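Case study 2.
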Amino acid sequence: MSNPQQLRYSKEHEWLSVAEEGVSTVGITEHAANALGDVVFVQLPAVGDTVTAGETCGELESTKSVSDLYSPVTGEVVAANQDVVDDPSLVNSAPFEGGWLFKVKIDGEPDDLLSSDEYTAFTAG
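Prediction:
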Protein backbone atom coordinates (compact mmCIF):
# COMPACT_ATOMS: atom_id res chain seq x y z
CA MET A 1 0.00 0.00 0.00
CA SER A 2 1.54 3.30 -0.99
CA ASN A 3 0.67 6.74 0.27
CA PRO A 4 1.47 9.47 -2.28
CA GLN A 5 4.37 11.62 -1.07
CA GLN A 6 2.78 14.93 -2.11
CA LEU A 7 -0.23 14.48 0.20
CA ARG A 8 -0.58 15.06 3.93
CA TYR A 9 -2.52 12.72 6.21
CA SER A 10 -4.65 12.84 9.35
CA LYS A 11 -4.66 10.25 12.12
CA GLU A 12 -8.35 9.72 11.23
CA HIS A 13 -7.13 8.40 7.83
CA GLU A 14 -8.05 11.31 5.58
CA TRP A 15 -5.65 12.75 3.02
CA LEU A 16 -5.25 16.37 1.98
CA SER A 17 -3.72 17.70 -1.21
CA VAL A 18 -1.37 20.66 -1.31
CA ALA A 19 -3.48 23.82 -1.52
CA GLU A 20 -3.83 25.42 -4.95
CA GLU A 21 -5.08 29.00 -4.59
CA GLY A 22 -6.12 28.17 -1.03
CA VAL A 23 -8.17 25.11 -2.01
CA SER A 24 -7.27 21.52 -1.08
CA THR A 25 -8.86 18.21 -1.96
CA VAL A 26 -9.84 15.73 0.79
CA GLY A 27 -10.30 11.97 0.57
CA ILE A 28 -9.79 8.87 2.66
CA THR A 29 -6.64 6.80 2.45
CA GLU A 30 -6.25 3.39 0.87
CA HIS A 31 -5.66 2.05 4.40
CA ALA A 32 -9.08 3.38 5.51
CA ALA A 33 -10.81 2.18 2.34
CA ASN A 34 -9.42 -1.33 2.86
CA ALA A 35 -10.43 -1.32 6.55
CA LEU A 36 -13.96 -0.21 5.68
CA GLY A 37 -14.53 -2.84 3.03
CA ASP A 38 -16.92 -2.20 0.15
CA VAL A 39 -18.29 1.34 0.51
CA VAL A 40 -21.98 1.43 -0.40
CA PHE A 41 -23.06 4.92 0.71
CA VAL A 42 -21.30 8.29 1.03
CA GLN A 43 -22.65 11.40 2.76
CA LEU A 44 -20.53 14.49 2.09
CA PRO A 45 -20.66 18.04 3.39
CA ALA A 46 -22.55 20.43 1.11
CA VAL A 47 -20.95 23.21 -0.89
CA GLY A 48 -20.95 26.30 1.34
CA ASP A 49 -20.72 24.30 4.58
CA THR A 50 -17.99 25.20 7.04
CA VAL A 51 -15.95 22.24 8.22
CA THR A 52 -13.71 22.21 11.29
CA ALA A 53 -10.44 20.30 11.64
CA GLY A 54 -10.98 17.09 13.58
CA GLU A 55 -14.79 17.39 13.49
CA THR A 56 -17.26 15.07 11.75
CA CYS A 57 -18.43 16.37 8.37
CA GLY A 58 -20.01 13.33 6.74
CA GLU A 59 -20.16 9.56 6.80
CA LEU A 60 -19.15 6.50 4.87
CA GLU A 61 -21.19 3.34 5.04
CA SER A 62 -19.75 0.00 4.02
CA THR A 63 -20.99 -3.56 4.04
CA LYS A 64 -19.18 -3.86 7.43
CA SER A 65 -19.99 -0.62 9.27
CA VAL A 66 -20.77 3.08 9.26
CA SER A 67 -17.81 5.41 9.81
CA ASP A 68 -17.67 9.13 10.40
CA LEU A 69 -15.81 11.30 7.93
CA TYR A 70 -13.61 13.89 9.63
CA SER A 71 -12.29 17.07 8.10
CA PRO A 72 -8.49 17.32 8.31
CA VAL A 73 -8.71 21.14 8.08
CA THR A 74 -10.97 24.07 8.86
CA GLY A 75 -12.54 25.94 5.98
CA GLU A 76 -15.42 26.27 3.54
CA VAL A 77 -16.48 23.41 1.28
CA VAL A 78 -16.25 24.58 -2.34
CA ALA A 79 -16.97 21.27 -4.11
CA ALA A 80 -18.32 17.82 -3.28
CA ASN A 81 -17.59 14.82 -5.50
CA GLN A 82 -21.01 13.79 -6.85
CA ASP A 83 -19.33 10.85 -8.61
CA VAL A 84 -18.66 9.09 -5.27
CA VAL A 85 -22.20 9.78 -4.10
CA ASP A 86 -23.49 8.14 -7.31
CA ASP A 87 -20.87 5.35 -7.25
CA PRO A 88 -19.46 4.86 -3.71
CA SER A 89 -17.19 2.04 -4.91
CA LEU A 90 -14.84 4.73 -6.28
CA VAL A 91 -13.70 5.27 -2.68
CA ASN A 92 -12.34 1.70 -2.74
CA SER A 93 -11.12 1.49 -6.32
CA ALA A 94 -9.43 4.92 -6.60
CA PRO A 95 -9.09 6.54 -3.14
CA PHE A 96 -6.39 8.96 -4.32
CA GLU A 97 -7.88 9.78 -7.74
CA GLY A 98 -11.56 9.58 -8.70
CA GLY A 99 -12.58 8.65 -5.15
CA TRP A 100 -11.78 12.07 -3.66
CA LEU A 101 -14.55 13.39 -1.42
CA PHE A 102 -14.62 17.18 -1.23
CA LYS A 103 -12.61 20.34 -1.84
CA VAL A 104 -12.18 22.93 0.88
CA LYS A 105 -10.97 26.53 0.93
CA ILE A 106 -8.63 26.31 3.90
CA ASP A 107 -8.86 28.80 6.75
CA GLY A 108 -5.34 28.91 8.17
CA GLU A 109 -2.59 26.36 7.78
CA PRO A 110 -3.08 22.87 9.24
CA ASP A 111 -0.33 21.98 11.68
CA ASP A 112 -1.04 18.45 12.89
CA LEU A 113 -1.04 16.52 9.61
CA LEU A 114 1.43 13.75 8.88
CA SER A 115 3.80 13.32 5.96
CA SER A 116 3.49 10.19 3.83
CA ASP A 117 6.32 8.49 5.73
CA GLU A 118 4.86 9.47 9.11
CA TYR A 119 1.43 8.17 8.10
CA THR A 120 2.89 4.91 6.82
CA ALA A 121 4.68 4.44 10.17
CA PHE A 122 1.47 5.38 12.05
CA THR A 123 -0.61 2.75 10.21
CA ALA A 124 2.10 0.11 10.57
CA GLY A 125 2.15 0.52 14.36
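Strands lie at 8-9, 14-16, 23-28, 39-43, 50-51, 56-62, 66-70, 75-80, 102-106.
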